[in-house]
UniProtKB/TrEMBL annotation:
Pfam families cross-referenced by the UniProt entry: Gln-synt_C
UniProt organism field: Marinomonas aquimarina
Gene3D superfamilies cross-referenced by the UniProt entry: Glutamine synthetase, N-terminal domain, Glutamine synthetase/guanido kinase, catalytic domain
Occurrences of domain GS catalytic (ranges): 109-445
Family under the similarity heading: Belongs to the glutamine synthetase family.
MF term (GO), any: glutamate-putrescine ligase activity
Protein name (database record): Gamma-glutamylputrescine synthetase PuuA
Amino acid sequence: MSDINFIEDHEFDLFITDLNGNLRGKRIPASGLKGVMANGVKLPQSVIGFDHWGDDVLENGLVFETGDSDGICLPVHPKPIPVPWAESARDQILAMMYNPDGTPFFPDPRQILTRIVERYKALGYTPVVATELEFYLLDGASEAKRRPSPPVIVDGNGCRLSKTDCYSIEEMDGLEGFFAEVRRDCEIQGIPADTIISELGPGQFEINMKHTDDAVQAADHAIMFKRLIKGVARQHDFGASFMAKPYADKSGNGFHVHFSLLDEQGNNVFDDGTEEGTRLLRNAVAGMLAHMSDSMLVFAPHLNSYRRFQAGAHAPTYASWGYENRTVAVRIPESEPEARRIEHRVSGADANPYLVLATVLGAALHGIETNMLPPEAIEGDAYSQSELFEALPNRWEAASETFRDSPFMMEYLGEEFVRVYAAAKDQEQQKIYGRISNVEYEAYL
């Protein structure tokens, strides 16, 4: 009962995450909390499959064929989580969707990741995961203008962040108030934020999360963190964007995933005391490389996502791997043997964290279950050795085709997910390609 009293005078947001990573739910008065925590909230199951703009996707089989029936959204945490940046007292409740009979609704991306983790546990393994998310701080007017502009550091020297200043401490000094509030709010919400880095673009930053042996919770933290960054940015008259490529000539926003595996005794099964790691590590790498092309629609879900993938832009264009090499798609970082792990470097920050982790871990699992082995690890510049590895799809439509035809996606993430997600991407492509761009008028009118 103390948890209920804690938020007696608050409203609260209950939300699920749709396949695009957008939050969908309801704002509910405090009087409804006890019932929500016990029984959840009803939402149409079709909400999971909305397109990016929140429109129904009639081709996904979840709308008219089902009578647009409801699912049950049940809270995934024992009590609400404060929203410190909100102007009025408010909390949030992260939820997951179920069928009316209580069984998991597997187009829900959190359910998909949960199922992958359970497959690991059936083999006696627990994934240990850490995420790295990049984002841009923008001038506060950027959202209204629909164009990105670097922020002015008011509490610094009053200058606009218009130049690249990678790993700059002074740049972060000028944003001390913003990052102090980010740190405070992460602690309040239980988000395990670790290091903060000034990245390659003007106003671009990366915040790394600490490793956790709960992969589903790692994705929860990534979802909550993205909401937190945007909320705190508005409090400081900034905008914030996880768009894959806000500036055509600047660095894109990536979402890197680190993971290792523990056995039932708590041992890292990627560690054999050497820098190379175990055969099991190479099995996992092989699975990730084998399914990278058919997973691209998850890692790069939008038209803009594919602007990240350019040679020399620190975003991989081939399904390559190597040791301590940032030009590859799958990197084995230098570390102490007991910390031997894999870093997956393909996904953009615009992707859905649940689906990214489910796809990365699912591909690694397939490599382990079938004892796959990768080609030789690459040395040096991966971009100059492209003939050695499979090229990744560099267009949205091409990624849709490989995704839809993927036996791996069907088996590991589910046929219903493939149908619903592909339908959303088809509708988004039709909407965007149905519009004539300004550059076409400028060039051809």
